[in-house]
Amino acid sequence: MDRLKQLTSHFTRSPKPWETKSPDDVVITLAIRSPLCKSWKGALKDTRSDELLTSMLKATISRMQIPPGMVQDICVGTVLPKSPGYEARASALAAGFPETTPTQVINRFCSSGLMAVTTVANQIRAAQIEIGLAVGVESMSFNKDEGAPPPSEEILAHPIAKDCLHPMGWTSENVSNDFSISREDMDVFAAISQQRAAHAASAGLFDAEIVPIEAFQKDPATGERKRVLVEKDDGIRPSTTAASLSKIRPAFPQWGGRTTGGNASQITDGAASVLLMTRRKAEELRLPIKARFVTTVVCGLAPRIMGIGPSIAIPLALEQAGLSKDEVDLFEINEAFASMYVYCVRHLGLDIDKVNVNGGAIALGHPLGATGARQVATGLAELERRGGRVLVTSMCIGLGMGAAAVFVRE
Predict the structure, then answer these.
(1) CA 140, 144, 150, 156: dihedral to nearest 10 degrees?
(2) Other CB atoms closer than 10 Å to residue 248's CB: what's the count?
(3) For residues 30 and 56, what is the distance between their CA atoms, to the nearest angstrom?
(4) Has residue 172 been placed in a domain?
(5) How far apart are CA 395 and CA 229, in angstroms?
(6) Number of domains the chain contains
(7) Dihedral angle of Cα 241, 246, 252, 253, to the nearest 10 degrees
């Protein structure tokens, strides 16, 4: 018998931490998003940020298969609203959540939606709540990005702190210059994003993640707003090629001139929701489990090259989860700028056929607070379609940070 064990031992292995299941696991039972629409021009341009959030929460209630009163906390990731706490609480009440369901707001720039997911997951892990809702939302049409406020003299005198004040376009040009990312490479990757998104949209691949939401449309003649149902993304440009992108004028010629309006993320309005709970609770309620939340890692780096954040955060997240990059089925990396996208894929040695397979922010847009949650909805829907196991989502974060998270499909 002992000899038999010796002979067969090399055929067996202990399960890795991410493969084991526990009643205390934090799981996702719903991950959905609104259509993503061009700011100032698209279908959501006349919809206020509080109205967009209310509509997203209504759509979430209609699909989460539990009474809204069972949600013990709502965390809203958003960046631009001047009074986000007011909007979060009032929108939740208007959408149909009872007054007993509290709300909170989180802002870590481009990762805010993912930070909302992480905050709720950590509350569940700490046994503070059993069920929580994470929402990412941004109306960039309604709330203008006014940039940094006037800085103190001490900040201006600090060689690194003062870099936080520069526009994000400057950081994109720094990445392209410092790491020899050519304009041609950036346009090629941008065209791939557009072509993949166009294929996904025409093939109906986004149907599993997009929920129609109620919005408003202004009559140009009278100024009167009427309610409409928005059902599809409107920023994708199907005819885009690298050749057509090469003809677009540089957006920041003063810093290098490789970044353009065609190879950077679109300014967009949108929202997304992720419902999380313990595995124990999901099984008790007989809810379908889409995936398990494993971990999120956030890192800091020089603000001047903030775009390379995913290249630091992804390895840290994989190490924490006990995974190799080859065990990951899909990566969702936010395409803030093609410069950082090209760099991260090349530096990490990623298979491009596993990264942003249905396009990314260059084609779909980057509603700042929504993107982190949107990537979860997009990634999990595609993971299910492919029968894969592991999803990694990641993004660079303005001011010099990066984030990455790991999810395992059931």
Answers:
(1) 30
(2) 14
(3) 13
(4) no
(5) 30
(6) 1
(7) 180
Q: Which residues are catalytic?
A: 110, 366, 396
Here the tokens at position 304 are 């001047």
Rounded to two decimals, what is the model's pTM?
0.95
Secondary structure, 3-state, the chain: CHHHHHHHHHHCCCCCHHHCCCCCCEEEEEEEECCCEECCCCCCCCCCHHHHHHHHHHHHHHHCCCCHHHCCCEEEECCCCCCHHHHHHHHHHHHCCCCCCCEEEECCHHHHHHHHHHHHHHHHHCCCCCEEEEEEEECCCCCCCCCCCCCCHHHHHCCCHHHHHCCHHHHHHHHHHHCCCCHHHHHHHHHHHHHHHHHHHHCCCCCCCECCEEEEEECCCCCCEEEEEECCCCCCCCCCCHHHHCCCCECCHHHCCCCECCCECCCEEEEEEEEEEEHHHHHHCCCCCCEEEEEEEEEECCHHHHHHHHHHHHHHHHHHHCCCHHHCCEEEECCCEHHHHHHHHHHHCCCHHHECCCCCHHHHCCCCCCHHHHHHHHHHHHHHHHCCCEEEEEEEECCCEEEEEEEEEC
Residue 182 domain flag: no
Per-residue pLDDT tens digits for 47-87: 999 999 999 999 999 999 999 999 999 999 999 999 999 99
Q: Is residue 87 part of a domain?
A: yes
Q: What would the pLDDT profile of 181-213 be if each residue is shown by its tens digit?
A: 999 999 999 999 999 999 999 999 999 999 999
Q: How many CA atoms lie within 13 A of 265 on its CB side?
A: 26
Record the tokens describing residue 10, joined without a space: 């090399």
Stretches where the chain sits below pLDDT 50 are 1, 3-4, 7-11
The whole-angstrom separation of Cα 271 and Cα 120 is 17
CA contacts within 13 A on the Cβ side of 197? 28
Instruction: List the domain range (segments joined by +) for residue 309.
Output: 16-144+190-409
Length, in residues, of the chain? 410
Q: Give strand pairing partners of 337.
A: 264
| 397 touches 110 (CB < 8 A) | yes
In the block, residue with structure tokens 């003649």: 221
**In this structure, is residue 127 part of a structural domain?**
yes
